[in-house]
Amino acid sequence: MKQYLQILFACNLLVLLSSCGPRWSETDKGDYNIVDNKGGKTLGYSSHSGVTLLEKNGYAFKDLNKNGEIDKYEDWRLSNDQRAKDLAHQLTIEEIAGLMLYSSHQSIPSRPRGYFAGTYNGKPYTEGETEPSDLTDQQMKFLKEDNLRHILLTSVKTPVIAAQWSNKTQAFCESIGKGIPANNSSDPRHGTTARAVYDAAAGGQISMWPSSIGMAATFNPNLVKEFGQTAASEYRALGITTALSPQVEIATDPRWMRSKGTFGESPKLAAAMAKAYCDGFQSDEWGMKSVNAMVKHWPGGGSGEGGRDAHYGIGKYAVYPGNNFDDHLVPFLEGAFDLDGETQMASAVMPYYTISWNQDQNSEQVGNTFSRYLITDLLRNKYGYDGVVCTDWGATRDHTAMDAFIDGKPWGIEELSIVDRHYQVLMAGADQFGGNNDAKPIIAAYEKGVKELGEDKMRARMEQSAVRLLRNIFRTGLFENPYLDLEKTKSIVGHSDKMTAGYEAQLQSIVLVKNQHKTLPIKDKKKVYVPKRYTPASRNFLGMETAASMDFPVSMDLVKKYYTVTENPDQADFAIVFIQNPEATIGYDKADLAKGGNGYSPISLQYRDYTATDARDVSIAGGDPLETFANRTYKNKTTKTANITDMQLVLDTKTKMGDKPVIVSVTTTKPLVFNEFEAAASAILVNFGVQDQAVFDLIAGKAEPSALLPMQMPINMSTVEKQFEDVPFDMVVHKDSDGNKYNFGFGMNWNGVITDERVGKYEK
Asked: For the segment 180-208, what is each residue's pLDDT rounded down to a tens digit?
């Protein structure tokens, strides 16, 4: 017995002694160190940042503020809320103002000139002289002097360079202030490159998936969740922890240029897709796999009058002639704010620029970001949302032109100073300023608040936002380990399995709307004629111009993998014509303005010239400091589309082919009028942006179409003018030569019209 007790005592002593010793080990990874806390959180820090480790109860903690103590925010054992509140309370107003900044667009390496350009030691990026992963002068300034911690990334040279830049950025942030990590973010970056070739055995720069409207065409929320999980893993491997997506508002006006980024016009379908998307990105629970989802755009931007967009002064008003404001909230309330996973709701929200005409019950006609009713009374108080609210980019800048994309958008408060606009955002209940690298106007807005409300109230208001902003950084584990293993980045981003999943999704997003006499599939190695397509000259929103061209719309090498190619229609068995939706204007014509008109013009969804005989005599909304009138009508005005040649290409090809099949592949970003060319086509495939190979795989029968139209296709422009901007499913739709109506939820497979359980599920 005595011997047994001695042994028991020795064992207990051994356990006691071992429990008092270190429970962590450290590994030098070169640019950073990894600390493994056995049974606790894994830490990462730069040995050059000045951060050291502190030990408590055998565990290691990072001394981020370098005060020799373990502060609550440094204690990974505490909740995210506890840590966020502790740190927020420690921050100076200048540091809180920095958290409220969200940078302008940053490319890696930086652009040498033009918008969003940067320098390295005062010089533009030059290959061979500057590492592409280095921080720019501007980045180091806004990180150190303005205390900015939220960075918007655009293009990156390679995934590895992105990861290297992220590690350098995190080490720099760790070395200054209280060691708050950078929360890097991205707009959607998983779009397709049409001519890229899919190879199941090969990887890529990043996996390619359908656009949001293409995802909607699958009518499959599970697929969207899979995309979210895949994209999140690639984002994290690039050092990105916030997605400026999804865009969940319903595209109730078919003319809106941003329809491609939505999940269509159905509130129910958009809600289901929003829920799946956010659950996929944020993961089942917060942690190192999570990416914050910033859902956009509250309370919806899809009802701009005349289909005009609020990036321009001409499109500042969202109107509700159908009294259907509530439908626009459904994707938020039943989708992004009601997740199945433990993260519960999207962690951030971006209001749109628009003035929601006559919806503010405090009688303010101001942009959504500036509306206390829409942000505090409705979003926060009524619906209980306590996540981050971030303005859209440039909302507080000066408004200088009616038709400029890169311009300020302070709709409804144009006459206020920049400082007063920032103050109005804070008082409305928002937390963050998109596209602003400069903390000075926020600090000045705080000082104004101190004079009006007192220091205690204004400090509390600033801390409230700081807690929300910090909470999202804690949730994603950045305070523990923001560093990336470059080998893991290589193995994750663009992995062949992810490329395959994206390609399969593309196949599921293409809608077959016509298949006369079962023209498709064409499996045999027949002779095909693919006519060249004219591409009109264009200019993007950054002012970069592309010259007009006449060329094959697809790679002929790709076509030859499926069929024998001939340039002689007489020798061809069939033809494939590739076209895009009508390229409309933004709804403004400076020539009309110069002639004494109001400048407003129709946005057309047809190829031929269009005269708006059915437009409103008097616009619902109007008014701008740069205009002397309020009536924005365009009634009886005529507009042209840039690519009428696309329609003519279909008709000409039909003439050349005679009775032989003409297959039309339409790439579109929004609804279009089919009756101008549909009768000339034997089969029509509609896609919303896919690799060309996916179209050929369907034509050749290597895959079967399964997608459905996520929005109505109008019979003509008269029904477009008569529909209400805020109401879904209120157009007369096109009826084709086979008697099929191109309505929401319509689509075909090889057997005919699809009638599975998806059809009608999301219509009403």
From this structure: 999 999 999 999 999 999 999 999 999 99
Domain limit, last residue, from 87, 111, 138: 87
When pLDDT is cut at 50, 70 and 90, the band that residue 535 belongs to is confident
Which of 282, 299, 292 has its CA nearest to residue 361?
299
- Give 10's contacts (C-beta < 8 A, 6+ positions apart): none
Percentage, residues of the chain above pLDDT 90: 92
| Domain end (from 38, 68, 87) | 87
Q: Residue holding tokens 């008014």?
A: 623
User: Which residues does 543 contact at the CB level (< 8 Å), separation at least 6?
Assistant: 114, 115
Q: CA-CA distance, 309 to 632, in Å (whole number)?
A: 14
Q: 245 is written with which tokens? A: 């997506």
pLDDT score of 536: 81
Q: What's the token pair of residue 362?
A: 């405090």
For the chain, give the mean pLDDT: 95
Q: What does the pLDDT look like over 651-678, one tens digit per residue?
A: 999 999 999 999 999 999 999 999 999 9
Does residue 175 belong to any structural domain of this protein? no
Q: What is the mean pLDDT of residues 625-645?
A: 97
DSSP secondary structure letter of residue 271: H
Domain count, the chain: 2
**How crowded is the C-beta side of 281, counted as CA atoms within 13 Å?**
28
3-state SS string over 148-211? CCEEEEEEECCHHHHHHHHHHHHHHHHCCCCCCCCEEEECCCCCCCCCCCCCCCCCCCCCCCCC
Helices 440-453 & 455-475, crossing angle to 10 degrees?
140
Q: Write down the residue that tokens 């229609």 correspond to.
A: 569
Indicate which CATH number applies to the domain containing 708. 3.40.50.1700
Q: Where do the H-state alpha helices sit in 21-149?
A: 80-90, 93-99, 137-144
Give the range of the structural domain holding residue 537, as residue numbers without chain letter: 501-578+642-753
* Number of helical H runs and strand E runs in the chain: 20, 30
Q: What pLDDT shows up at residue 543?
A: 63
3-state SS track over 275-344: HHHHHHHHCCCCCCCCCEEEEEEECCCCCEHHHCCCCCHHHCEECCCCCCHHHHHHHHHHHHCCCCCCCC
